[in-house]
Design brief:
Layout (H helix, E strand, L loop, with lengths): L4 H20 L12 E5 L2 E8 L2 E8 L2 E2 L5 E8 L5 E5 L1 E2 L4 E5 L8 E8 L5 E7 L2
Antiparallel strand pairs: 1-2, 2-3, 3-4, 3-8, 5-6, 5-9, 7-8, 9-10
Length: about 130
Amino acid sequence: MMKSPKTLSAAVIGLAALAFAAGASAHGSMKPQHGGVVQMTGETKFELVSAPAGVALYVQEDEEDVASSGSTARLTITAKSGASSAVEMTPAGGNKFEAKGLKLAPGSTVGVMLVNKATQARASTTFTIN
């Protein structure tokens, strides 16, 4: 028995929607790996971790670690009051940057700018601290 063109079209559209949905979730996990907060910009995943010793930032691109030695990371912190400050982070091995002793106040906004030293390519995101 031959299916009607409408039935075939509906089936093709349904399969295409399933393929798109599967592809959309293939960008990796948004689950924090280091106990922080995760933001995704394009294919770049940032995880910001605030701990008693300071603040750490972990970066991945296409689910691969980005070597902190090959990039610079800068935080721009804006407090609830509107006061702003900038902090250069230090490469800490692997895909980790750190700012020892830095405390992030609840309600502040933290902008992250990552710059690849070789290509000058930039990636950025913003976190709101709860």
